Fold:
Amino acid sequence: MLASWIELDFVRDGREAASVADYARRRFGVEAPASGDPQLVQQAYYFGVLASGLRAAVEHHPEWTTMSHEELCVDSHARFEALATRLGLEWSDAAREFLDASNEEGAGYRTSRRAEAQPERWRERLDAQQIATIRATLARFPTPLLPD
Structure:
Protein backbone atom coordinates (compact mmCIF):
# COMPACT_ATOMS: atom_id res chain seq x y z
CA MET A 1 0.00 0.00 0.00
CA LEU A 2 2.76 2.44 0.90
CA ALA A 3 4.49 1.96 -2.47
CA SER A 4 1.24 3.07 -4.13
CA TRP A 5 0.83 5.99 -1.75
CA ILE A 6 4.34 7.16 -2.61
CA GLU A 7 3.70 6.92 -6.36
CA LEU A 8 0.39 8.79 -6.02
CA ASP A 9 1.93 11.39 -3.68
CA PHE A 10 -0.89 10.50 -1.29
CA VAL A 11 -1.06 12.13 2.08
CA ARG A 12 -4.08 12.51 4.31
CA ASP A 13 -5.94 15.75 4.72
CA GLY A 14 -4.28 17.84 7.41
CA ARG A 15 -7.66 18.59 8.98
CA GLU A 16 -8.02 15.01 10.16
CA ALA A 17 -4.45 14.73 11.42
CA ALA A 18 -5.34 15.84 14.96
CA SER A 19 -8.07 13.17 15.26
CA VAL A 20 -5.79 10.46 13.92
CA ALA A 21 -2.97 11.54 16.25
CA ASP A 22 -5.29 11.60 19.25
CA TYR A 23 -6.60 8.12 18.44
CA ALA A 24 -3.08 6.71 17.95
CA ARG A 25 -1.89 8.25 21.21
CA ARG A 26 -4.85 6.97 23.24
CA ARG A 27 -5.23 3.55 21.62
CA PHE A 28 -1.65 2.57 20.82
CA GLY A 29 0.54 4.96 22.80
CA VAL A 30 2.14 6.23 19.59
CA GLU A 31 2.84 9.91 19.04
CA ALA A 32 2.38 11.46 15.61
CA PRO A 33 5.46 12.41 13.63
CA ALA A 34 6.53 16.05 13.75
CA SER A 35 4.95 18.23 11.08
CA GLY A 36 8.36 18.71 9.47
CA ASP A 37 9.09 14.99 9.15
CA PRO A 38 9.34 13.59 5.60
CA GLN A 39 6.12 12.71 3.81
CA LEU A 40 7.04 9.01 3.84
CA VAL A 41 7.17 9.09 7.65
CA GLN A 42 3.74 10.75 7.66
CA GLN A 43 2.40 8.13 5.22
CA ALA A 44 3.87 5.20 7.15
CA TYR A 45 2.48 6.56 10.41
CA TYR A 46 -1.00 6.92 8.91
CA PHE A 47 -0.77 3.39 7.51
CA GLY A 48 0.33 2.20 10.97
CA VAL A 49 -2.71 3.77 12.59
CA LEU A 50 -5.06 2.21 10.02
CA ALA A 51 -3.42 -1.23 10.12
CA SER A 52 -3.27 -1.24 13.91
CA GLY A 53 -6.92 -0.23 14.11
CA LEU A 54 -7.90 -3.06 11.78
CA ARG A 55 -5.83 -5.57 13.72
CA ALA A 56 -7.44 -4.46 16.98
CA ALA A 57 -10.91 -4.77 15.44
CA VAL A 58 -10.16 -8.28 14.14
CA GLU A 59 -8.89 -9.33 17.59
CA HIS A 60 -12.23 -8.26 19.06
CA HIS A 61 -14.20 -10.03 16.33
CA PRO A 62 -12.85 -13.54 15.80
CA GLU A 63 -15.97 -14.31 13.78
CA TRP A 64 -14.81 -11.93 11.01
CA THR A 65 -13.34 -13.39 7.87
CA THR A 66 -9.99 -11.89 6.92
CA MET A 67 -8.04 -12.19 3.70
CA SER A 68 -4.98 -10.36 2.45
CA HIS A 69 -4.73 -8.65 -0.90
CA GLU A 70 -1.74 -10.82 -1.75
CA GLU A 71 -3.72 -14.00 -1.05
CA LEU A 72 -6.47 -12.87 -3.40
CA CYS A 73 -3.99 -12.04 -6.17
CA VAL A 74 -2.69 -15.62 -6.36
CA ASP A 75 -5.10 -17.89 -8.23
CA SER A 76 -7.73 -15.15 -8.06
CA HIS A 77 -10.67 -17.13 -9.42
CA ALA A 78 -10.32 -19.92 -6.91
CA ARG A 79 -9.55 -17.60 -3.99
CA PHE A 80 -12.42 -15.18 -4.66
CA GLU A 81 -14.85 -18.05 -5.19
CA ALA A 82 -13.74 -19.68 -1.94
CA LEU A 83 -14.08 -16.36 -0.11
CA ALA A 84 -17.56 -15.79 -1.52
CA THR A 85 -18.59 -19.29 -0.45
CA ARG A 86 -17.14 -18.76 3.01
CA LEU A 87 -19.15 -15.55 3.33
CA GLY A 88 -22.34 -17.21 2.11
CA LEU A 89 -22.36 -15.22 -1.13
CA GLU A 90 -23.20 -16.51 -4.56
CA TRP A 91 -20.25 -16.81 -6.95
CA SER A 92 -21.62 -16.18 -10.42
CA ASP A 93 -20.48 -15.80 -14.01
CA ALA A 94 -20.97 -12.04 -13.60
CA ALA A 95 -18.57 -11.99 -10.64
CA ARG A 96 -16.03 -14.02 -12.63
CA GLU A 97 -16.38 -11.66 -15.61
CA PHE A 98 -15.91 -8.61 -13.36
CA LEU A 99 -12.75 -10.14 -11.93
CA ASP A 100 -11.44 -10.86 -15.43
CA ALA A 101 -12.24 -7.33 -16.63
CA SER A 102 -10.33 -5.86 -13.67
CA ASN A 103 -7.28 -8.01 -14.35
CA GLU A 104 -5.57 -5.69 -16.83
CA GLU A 105 -2.79 -3.15 -16.80
CA GLY A 106 -3.59 -0.04 -14.84
CA ALA A 107 -1.85 2.94 -13.36
CA GLY A 108 -2.55 5.84 -11.07
CA TYR A 109 -6.04 5.89 -9.63
CA ARG A 110 -7.37 3.21 -12.02
CA THR A 111 -8.35 0.14 -10.03
CA SER A 112 -7.31 -2.32 -12.71
CA ARG A 113 -4.06 -4.23 -12.14
CA ARG A 114 -2.59 -7.54 -13.24
CA ALA A 115 -3.30 -9.66 -10.15
CA GLU A 116 -0.43 -12.05 -10.65
CA ALA A 117 2.05 -9.12 -10.68
CA GLN A 118 0.92 -7.64 -7.35
CA PRO A 119 2.28 -9.92 -4.61
CA GLU A 120 5.70 -8.75 -3.47
CA ARG A 121 5.64 -5.94 -6.07
CA TRP A 122 6.64 -3.46 -3.38
CA ARG A 123 10.12 -5.02 -3.40
CA GLU A 124 10.81 -3.55 -6.86
CA ARG A 125 9.08 -0.24 -6.14
CA LEU A 126 10.74 0.72 -2.85
CA ASP A 127 14.43 1.34 -2.33
CA ALA A 128 16.41 0.32 0.76
CA GLN A 129 16.15 3.75 2.38
CA GLN A 130 12.36 3.87 1.94
CA ILE A 131 12.03 0.39 3.41
CA ALA A 132 14.20 1.38 6.38
CA THR A 133 12.09 4.52 6.98
CA ILE A 134 8.85 2.53 6.81
CA ARG A 135 10.16 -0.16 9.14
CA ALA A 136 11.41 2.41 11.67
CA THR A 137 8.10 4.27 11.64
CA LEU A 138 5.97 1.12 11.98
CA ALA A 139 8.22 -0.31 14.69
CA ARG A 140 6.78 2.33 17.03
CA PHE A 141 3.41 0.55 16.99
CA PRO A 142 2.77 -2.16 19.60
CA THR A 143 1.78 -4.87 17.12
CA PRO A 144 4.17 -5.98 14.35
CA LEU A 145 2.76 -4.65 11.10
CA LEU A 146 5.32 -6.01 8.65
CA PRO A 147 6.76 -9.44 8.01
CA ASP A 148 10.43 -9.90 8.87
